[in-house]
Design goal:
With 396 residues, this protein is an alpha/beta fold. Helix content is 35%, strand content 24%. It has 2 domains: 175 residues, Rossmann fold, CATH 3.40.50; 208 residues, 3-Layer(aba) Sandwich (Rossmann fold). Helix 1 packs parallel to helix 3. Bound molecules: flavin mononucleotide.
Length: 396
């Protein structure tokens, strides 16, 4: 598939070098979009950039036409890679401090895409402790810097600060895209969120699941190269980018139906907190009256067990268990009943406050018992750890 790169050009004497790179990337059939800062337009013209990139140049956050056609959030989400070239000292300072006062910085802050930065500046600006602190901080957040060799700078000084040559940046980009990801080729299905079981057309029973952990696992699987389908109960979360399928459901029965349609060959992770019971629903809204209505509860289908016992069972089936007491004992029962390979058990008693919280701690168990305890950490880190220590070893 054609890879999409967003290039951000900032105001530097080296801005013209971005034009050479754009031409090289177009020859290699990359799809290019470009954002120019206000200062960048003092060095190279948007006309030259759009002629070479064969697309419109974006420069104004408040351009309403662009917001309807190609809003800043779409620009932030639609690319496989973002390259800031050249990156001015000012722009590096701005993003390392989280400022978003123009289109370029706003798009970078709103994006989860890998970012490469090719700085270009005077040697003293580059060596300044403030700039070095900004670069180190951004590196710690997984931004990658492409530095040029020592050499004569445009200002007459000599040293680092020179921008990397377009050929070197192109090499760096090629390396990014040629890196094989550990879950490449793996097809995965993740369920997340609660289910709503209607009592009547306006009321339902459910549980407190937010869906955060399932969505984060789906995102991390994608970053590791897996093809991911996400089936979600009702949540308020942003849908992850680059999913193969996203199916929104309300009830456990709808979730099971969607899971059976999308049953993958490799990996099923049931993170959803499926409501155990459904209600024999009323067609019309139940009227309030002095007598309390009697609700007839019926068992919901067991999605995890259905997938574990399916004739096309995925290679690895992982369930989540939320327990308020006897965590390990109950999770062991669950792994046997459900016939899954691994249970990730968390304590959801009031003191632990897991539902809706950004933090989680879990016991990871197989049929022999707990083989990994993951201490309290944010749910994103936990998703990364589950993939690294539980999922990757199963596929190697
Ligand atoms: C002739 C000239 C050349 C410049 N070259 C650079 C440069 O190579 N690197 C840099 O960081 N700033 C350079 N600047 C200063 C930036 O253009 C200035 O800090 C600007 O505010 C950057 O804005 P931006 O980061 O929004 O593009 C230069 C300014 C001028 C007038």
């Amino acid at each position: 598939m054609q890879k999409k790169i967003l290039i951000i050009i900032t105001g530097s004497i080296a801005s013209y070098k971005a034009l050479y790179l754009i031409r090289m990337l177009k020859e290699k059939k990359f799809l290019i979009n470009v954002i120019m800062t206000k200062s960048a337009k003092k060095f190279v013209t948007p006309l030259s950039v759009s002629s070479l990139s064969e697309s419109k140049v974006y420069d104004d956050l408040f351009d309403l036409t662009d917001e309807t056609e190609m809003g800043h959030i779409k620009l932030a989400k639609m690319h496989d890679l973002i390259l800031v070239m050249p990156a001015s000292c000012h722009f590096i300072a701005k993003i390392s401090n989280g400022f978003a006062d123009d289109l370029a910085s706003t798009v970078l802050l709103a994006s989860k895409t890998k970012v490469l930065i090719a700085p270009a500046m005077n040697i003293n600006m580059f060596n300044n402790k403030i700039t070095q602190k900004n670069i180190k901080y951004l590196e710690s957040l997984d931004y990658s810097f492409i530095l040029g060799n020592e050499g004569k700078l445009a200002c007459g000084d000599y040293g680092l600060g020179r921008m990397a040559e377009p050929e070197d940046v192109l090499n760096f980009i090629n390396i990014q895209f040629s890196k094989t990801k550990p879950l490449e080729g793996i097809k995965a299905l993740v369920t997340a969120g609660p289910t709503h079981e209607p009592i009547d057309p306006v009321r339902f029973i459910s549980n407190k699941s937010s869906g955060i952990q399932g969505y984060l696992l789906a995102e991390e699987l994608i970053l590791n190269g897996a093809e991911v389908s996400l089936i979600s109960g009702p949540t308020n979360l942003e849908i992850p980018s680059n999913l193969s399928n996203f199916i929104r459901v309300e009830t456990a029965e709808e979730m099971l139906k969607a899971c059976l349609q999308k049953i993958p060959k490799d990996l099923f992770i049931s993170v959803a907190a499926v409501t155990d019971w459904k209600v024999k629903a009323n067609k019309h809204k139940i009227k309030k009256s002095p007598s309390v209505p009697k609700l007839k509860l019926l068992n919901n289908p067991d999605i995890l067990k259905s997938i574990s016992s399916h004739k096309d069972r995925p290679r690895l089936v992982i369930g989540f268990a939320a327990e308020t007491k006897n965590l390990e004992e109950n999770a062991m029962k669950k792994i046997k009943q459900k016939k899954c390979d691994i249970i990730i058990a968390n304590n959801v008693s009031k003191t632990k406050n897991v539902f809706g919280s950004p933090m989680n701690e879990v016991n990871v168990m197989n049929h022999k018992g707990t083989f990994l305890k993951i201490k309290k950490m944010n749910k994103k880190k936990l998703a990364k750890k589950i993939i690294k220590e539980v999922i990757l070893p199963s596929f190697n």
